[in-house]
Write a structure and sequence with these properties.
Blueprint (H helix, E strand, L loop, with lengths): L7 E4 L3 H12 L4 E5 L19 E2 L3 H6 L9 H6 L2 H10 L4 E4 L3 E4 L4 H14 L4 E3 L2 E7 L2 E7 L2 E4 L2 E4 L14 H8 L4 E7 L3 E2 L4 H4 L4 E11 L4 E11 L3 E3 L1 H7 L10 E6 L6 H14 L5 H4 L9 H7 L13 H12 L1 E5 L1 E2 L7 E6 L17 E3 L13 H23 L1
Parallel strand pairs: 1-2, 1-10, 2-6, 10-20
Antiparallel strand pairs: 3-5, 4-5, 7-8, 8-9, 11-19, 12-15, 12-18, 13-14, 13-16, 14-15, 16-17
Length: 417
């Protein structure tokens, strides 16, 4: 199966795996990449809505501040490959980049394929063979890696970089195999759970407004103690199960442990207007359209799909004439405009998440080299580790940095041996 022996094997052809393989090959190592899919970088195709949010144009401290889960573990890896180095890496490979809102970095072409192609052609230039096969286990002897077991047999090697991803988007190959293999070798795996994920709501009106996208609204998330855990302006979407869209995905990373906490999403439908200004606008509309039904009058202020829900929640009959509206009803309407509540029952399943939170316990991994503290010659990179960040290119930045650290660490290990 393997005519030439490669001392280093990288398992997983995603962002972290490809970066690890390229790093090691550039340092002169003979490295082989194993990927279960017919093509590398499958998950990269769907990141950033197919545009690939490569990194965030910021400093190391901002990346750490945007990584709520074990951020300090990444300090060494991020210092050696900060966002500026990632940008240069892709520029040197011929990919033109641009910076957008929130310092998000994308390829100028808006095509994730350009990032994947750049990585693939660099692997080819470095003569790194990519073998399509599923890895089933890591072989060890006397506490050190000695090979990789695949569905087609064992491949001997001296070091392995596991970069198989988490459990999000299993169709891309992230099925938890890396967690299982690490656990079989004695590693503690913190239970994976979804992050950057749509949210489910018990409120039936979400389904009634399925497909409605709200733009330029402000979302505030409060926990059961009424403490604000997230607030941002942007876009969200009502779905048959609850809420989705960019704002919701970002908010979900701040909503931890649904077993102990309950959360409510509050939507300010008119963030540009304070309450007195919006109330004055309502009064003007009511006065100018005194003989109109409320269901028709609200068309100038709300998306049509939202009007019946708004009136029901404000306890106002749709056929009520504007001139018959009471002060109390107007007050309820105003409150809903500025703070439309949606109860949250929990996140969608992990298969729907962009990122997996949880994974291999970072205390069992050397933060400088990404080498296992339990098995000599075993290295980890990317989403497999118990580290995750907010949206904005931070999770891919973690993949590039840990991939490079693992590549350098593995070459150092081979050199020593």
């Amino acid at each position: 199966m393997n005519e030439q022996n490669y001392p280093l094997i990288v398992v997983g052809g995603g962002a972290a795996g490809m970066m690890a393989a390229i790093t090691a090959a550039r340092m002169g190592a003979q490295v082989q990449l194993l990927e279960r899919n017919p093509k590398v970088g499958r998950k990269l195709y769907i990141t950033g809505k197919g545009r690939c949010n490569v990194t965030n144009h910021c400093g190391v401290e901002e990346v750490l501040a945007s990584t709520p889960r074990n951020g300090r573990f990444l300090y060494s890896a991020l210092t050696r490959m900060p966002p500026a180095t990632v940008e240069k890496f892709f520029s040197d490979l011929g990919v033109e980049l641009k910076v957008e809102r929130g310092n998000r970095v994308f390829p100028k072409s808006d095509k994730a394929a350009d990032i994947i192609d750049a990585l693939f052609f660099e692997l080819r230039r470095l003569k790194v063979p990519v073998l399509q096969t599923r890895v089933t286990g890591i072989a060890c002897a006397e506490g050190a890696v000695c090979g990789v077991d695949t569905e087609n047999g064992r491949i001997p090697c001296k070091a392995v970089i596991l970069a198989t991803g988490g459990l999000s988007y299993p169709a891309t190959g992230s099925t938890g195999d890396g967690h299982r293999m690490a656990a079989e070798l004695g590693h503690c795996v913190v239970e994976p759970r979804p992050s950057l994920v749509p949210l489910e709501s018990p409120d039936r009106f979400c389904g009634e407004m399925q497909g409605l996208a709200l733009k330029n609204v402000t979302l505030t998330v409060k926990n059961q103690k009424k403490k604000v855990v997230y607030q941002e302006q942007g876009e969200l979407l009502f779905t048959h199960f609850g809420l989705s869209g960019p704002l919701i995905l970002s908010a979900s990373a701040h909503m931890r442990d649904f077993n102990k906490n309950t959360y409510t999403c509050l939507i300010d439908l008119k963030p540009a207007l304070d309450e007195p200004t919006l109330d004055a606008r309502l009064v003007r509309e009511l006065t100018a359209n005194a003989n109109k039904d409320m269901a028709n009058l609200l068309g100038t202020l709300l998306p049509r799909m939202m009007i019946p829900v708004m009136l029901e929640r404000a306890e106002i009959p749709g056929g009520r004439k504007a001139h018959d509206l009471t002060k109390g009803e107007r007050r309820r309407l105003l409150e809903l405009f500025k703070s439309f509540p949606v109860a949250i029952s929990g996140p969608r399943p992990i298969a729907d998440a962009i990122v997996t939170s949880g994974g291999i316990k970072v205390g069992e991994v050397d933060p400088k080299t990404m080498e296992s503290k339990k098995v000599s010659g075993l290295f980890f990179a990317g989403e497999l580790l118990d580290v995750d960040a907010y949206t904005g290119g931070f999770n891919l930045q973690i993949a590039w940095s840990t991939g490079r650290a693992a590549g350098e660490g593995a070459v150092g290990s081979l050199t020593e041996s």
